[in-house]
């Protein structure tokens, strides 16, 4: 059975540095992958490459068993959704209309269908922002705008979601809500999620697998259950201590010198 997304010998470089060397990796339905690494390690570059927004310096990427570059854009958008780390709203529009734009890959006619509108409203409800539907998107707070961006991604209704720092600008309650929502989405048949996040403990409570970007293009891909404080410390460049409470593991930064 084909993976939802996989790479063979994927190599990424930037500014004369090798960010990722020969990544052989598979993302399968039901999995939630967390990409972990220091600032500048190449996490955002990796997600942009997997989304087809930049060309890798080497190797291959396949989406549902087909070369990523061979997918027509609308077909790719029905299979894969991508949330960037930042964006700019170029013009005023209502929040609901912003979500309906994300239905374009599914649209069969010029006008929004009842299904399109229902999908958008369901996504707003899932993020507890149904009350913002008629608001001008440019009047939202940073946290509200972030939740609208995630809602738009859900409205796109792709089975595979790639998210770059989706919890940025959110308070702790909405961070927890969002990560639980993404983990629950992975339980739907044929669905999976991959996300970059610096919210280490919250993310690892919900992720099933981790992709660690290490120095000099090295990487490790493994189930979260196999993570250790030594491995995370090496990945993040700072000593971490593992603690356990109520059957869960947490990692805290060790005190400085």
TrEMBL record:
InterPro entries per UniProt: AAA+_ATPase, ABC_transporter-like_ATP-bd, ABC_transporter-like_CS, P-loop_NTPase
Role of this protein: Part of the ABC transporter complex HmuTUV involved in hemin import. Responsible for energy coupling to the transport system.
The keyword Nucleotide-binding is annotated on this UniProt entry: yes
Superkingdom of the organism of origin: Bacteria
Keywords attached to this entry: ATP-binding, Cell membrane, Membrane, Nucleotide-binding, Translocase, Transport
Sample GO molecular function, one term: ATP binding
Protein name: Iron complex transport system ATP-binding protein
Recorded coiled-coil stretches: none
The UniProt record lists the keyword ATP-binding: yes
Xref: Pfam families: ABC_tran
Domain ABC transporter: 5-240
């Amino acid at each position: 059975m084909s993976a939802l997304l996989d790479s063979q010998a994927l190599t990424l470089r930037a500014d004369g540095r090798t960010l990722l060397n020969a990544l052989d990796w598979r993302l399968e339905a039901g999995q939630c992958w967390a990409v972990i690494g220091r600032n500048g390690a190449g996490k955002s570059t990796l997600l942009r490459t997997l989304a087809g927004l930049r060309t890798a310096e080497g190797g291959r990427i396949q989406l549902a068993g087909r070369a990523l570059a061979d997918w027509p854009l609308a077909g790719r958008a029905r299979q894969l959704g991508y949330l960037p780390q930042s964006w700019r709203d170029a013009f005023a529009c209502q929040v609901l209309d912003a979500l309906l734009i994300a239905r374009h890959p599914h649209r069969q006619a010029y006008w929004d269908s009842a299904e399109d509108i229902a999908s958008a409203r369901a996504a707003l409800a899932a993020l507890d922002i149904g009350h913002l539907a008629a608001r001008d998107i440019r009047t939202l707070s940073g946290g509200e705008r972030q939740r609208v961006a995630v809602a738009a991604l859900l409205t796109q209704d792709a089975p595979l979601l790639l998210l770059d720092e989706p919890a940025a600008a959110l308070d702790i309650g909405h961070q927890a809500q969002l990560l639980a929502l993404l983990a629950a989405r992975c339980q739907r048949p044929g669905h999976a999620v991959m996300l970059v996040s610096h919210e280490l403990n919250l993310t690892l409570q919900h992720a099933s697998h981790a992709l660690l970007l290490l120095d000099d293009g090295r990487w490790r891909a493994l189930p979260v259950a196999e993570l250790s404080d030594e491995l995370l410390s090496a990945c993040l460049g700072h000593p971490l201590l593992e603690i356990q409470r109520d059957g869960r593991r947490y990692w805290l930064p060790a005190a400085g010198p």
